[in-house]
Amino acid sequence: MKNIMFIAPPAAGKGTQAELVVSKYNLPHISTGDILREISKEDSEVGNYVRETLASGNLVKDEITYKLIEERLKKDDCKNGYIIDGFPRNLDQAREYDKILQDLGYEVGNVILINIDEKTLENRIVGRRLCEDCGAIYNINDPKSSPKVESVCDNCGGKLYQRTDDNLESFQTRYQMYLEKTAPIIDYYKKQNVLHEVDGDDTVENVFAKIDEIIKK
Ligand code: AMP
After folding, report:
1. pTM for the whole structure
2. Is 165 a member of any domain?
3. Catalytic residue chosen out of the listed positions 72, 89, 124, 129
4. Is residue 158 situated within a structural domain?
5. 62 lies in some domain
6. Which domain holds residue 100?
């Protein structure tokens, strides 16, 4: 199975879509954001640095991100394909990723870009809630993706929380960062003929159907 990379602005639904691909195809899901959120819970110098950087919406420095990606991709479960989300986030990271892939004998696979406009994202971000136990994602401002019981996960009964960076100020920083730093990698992958664009302003099911078509090709 080909590897899958997701590129999307913040709150475009890439985490939700990646989880759907995981359940259907049983691939490991490597999200730098998730790994960094785990590190941010540590009571250490790195933990403190990552926690502050995440809350500000800025990017964590490359030396930390490269190391965690390399270590994760070397694990056996990545041999038959994996989903990578949140990395690379700029051209330097894309070039570094190419080197890591080459060392491991892997290919970039399908790069899936989820397109969605800024206003829709802004509305989504303030309502996003995540389950602290299973990571399921909800949106309390959208009846179609609200939890059945307030603050409780439908899947596992876990408690729902709001990411510290899911506020308008942090969103603006992350969105600007996306336009400046991440958007240039779209061309990088277009030139490699591996980019597929999907309209993300649709229901979760419809977006997934479009993504699944790409994967099945
Ligand atoms: P995400 O869950 O992908 O929205 O990522 C949340 C936050 O984690 C970002 O705003 C960054 O602070 C940090 N982060 C995630 N991936 C990377 C990366 N590839 N390089 C640097 N920082 C990252």
Report:
1. 0.85
2. no
3. 89
4. no
5. yes
6. 4-116+180-216
